[in-house]
Amino acid sequence: MTHGEIIIRFEKVSFEYGHNKHILDNVDFSIRRGMKVAIMGQNGAGKSTIFSLITSSNIPEEGKIHLAQRTTIALSRQVIPRDELDITVRDFFQKCFKEKVYDIDPKIDQVLEVVNLKGHDKVHERTIKSFSGGQQARLLLASALIQEPDILLLDEPTNNLDKAGISHLTDFLVKYKKTVIVISHDAKFLNAFTDAVLYLDVYTRKIEQYVGDYNDVKDQIEARMDRENRKNALLSKEIQAKKDQANAFAMKGGNLRAVAKRMRDLAEDLEEQKVDVRKEDKTIRAFTIPSQPDQIGDIVTFSSVSILKNGKPKKVKVNIKLRKNKHLLLSGPNGIGKSTLLESLASGKSTDAVIAPGVRVGYYRQDFSTLNFNDTVYESLAEVSRKVSGRVDEEKIRATAAGFLITGDMVHTKIGSLSEGQKGLVAFARLVIEQPGFLILDEPTNHINFRHLPVIAKALDQYTGAMVLVSHVPEFVSQIRIDEILDLDK
């Protein structure tokens, strides 16, 4: 596929947060008009920061960012800010423009049809918080598309989307003619439409530019690491031979000492020729979520479930009892009421289900609103430790955090300053310390590096308490023991 002029160019760009959070170091890359590019890298590497530099929300410490003349940019954010949840759909879209757009409703209708979110009564007057997580993900995408930008920036656009939503978005991007840059941990989604990858290496703080989709990049990285390892192995063999020769000549003394020195110098020269083998992203350590001890009998009893069918509330009778070691999968399309059901369960306000007295509930919310963003990671974990055991077990807190790649100064970082993926890892660390008897998980794969997902799936598979799971990622769910499925659409 041929592409047009260069539309974005980073020239020796460096950027850091504060004094010790280096993100980019002397980075160069370029993107041509019409390209569809994925940005990849581990949680916290700084992928969203690249978007903030492109949109000028952040300014580089050094270097320049060149944009083609009169280029317009729109960003589809990962999450809707909390201060926008109470505004109407009309006001939400109006905020996308610097100047007031008169007669904006037809534009909204048009873009909602593109993201497959049409047919809702009085949609312009509805508040944002009245939509489900998956529907809010579609609103975020629509808020970028309504601006008709030259460059479309998508930050984790598949989070919270059901299978139909992902399929609809994929089809749209395949046909889309303008420049698209996507941050995503969903390799299958990326492989459907991307033709290049920018890989942000968290160790070197450089960006590696590759042609092809994620699978191509994976093959290229593995081939490169193999070449680097083979080169280093040959050099090590040659270095050892020079050192052996140097030792042999030195032993003989006399004029041969000069030869020995020359051999050692050659060995040092060869040592400098060794290359730093590219490091792979770290994966979180295997972990266990211990279940609350001494739980017997029915932990949760569902007598009915409340759902939204064609925008109207409906109560359906069910008879489901969850005991220890019983895992329930809650399924159904975006907007049917899965997250609402989980929230009412976790808050103890559900009229449809009863949780046995004394059961400790562990709740993983897709929007991380169970976390206090003003707490540091340490304070957040200490709060749970105190609640469970009546004291703060510092050794356990630090060991648990380290297992989720939260090490060093990051333990004293405010949760609000972490990447979305790192917030997810903190949420899992809290569950490990909390030892819940009933585990509620709402889209636990959102924002999480795909390398961590098998580790998380194994922990959930082995969890011995009662569990309710919502996830739109079949590959993830297939790795977890599910005892019963409640399909709210049937």
Helix/strand layout:
Blueprint: E1 6-17, E2 21-32, E3 36-40, H1 47-54, E4 62-67, E5 73-76, H2 89-94, H3 105-114, H4 133-145, E6 151-155, H5 163-175, E7 179-183, H6 187-191, E8 196-200, E9 207-211, H7 214-252, H8 256-272, E10 300-309, E11 312-322, E12 327-331, H9 338-347, E13 353-355, E14 361-364, H10 377-389, H11 394-403, H12 420-434, E15 438-442, H13 453-461, E16 466-470, H14 474-477, E17 484-487
Parallel strand pairs: 3-7, 3-8, 5-6, 6-7, 12-16, 12-17, 14-15, 15-16
Antiparallel strand pairs: 1-2, 1-4, 8-9, 10-11, 10-13
Largest sheet report: 6 strands, mixed
CATH class of the domain at 300-487: Alpha Beta
Strands of the widest sheet, in order across it, are 5-6-7-3-8-9
Category from helices, strands and their pairing: alpha/beta
What does the radius of gyration come to? 26 Å
Percentage of residues in DSSP E strands: 15-25%
The CATH topology name of the domain at 300-487 reads Rossmann fold
What is the second-level CATH architecture of the domain at 300-487?
3-Layer(aba) Sandwich
Q: Mean pLDDT, as a whole number?
A: 87
Got a strand count? 17
pLDDT < 50 runs, ≥5 residues: none
Please work out how many helical segments DSSP would assign: 14
CATH superfamily of the domain at 300-487: P-loop containing nucleotide triphosphate hydrolases
Alpha carbon gap, first and last residue: 44 Å
The share of residues in helices is 25-40%
Coarse morphology: globular
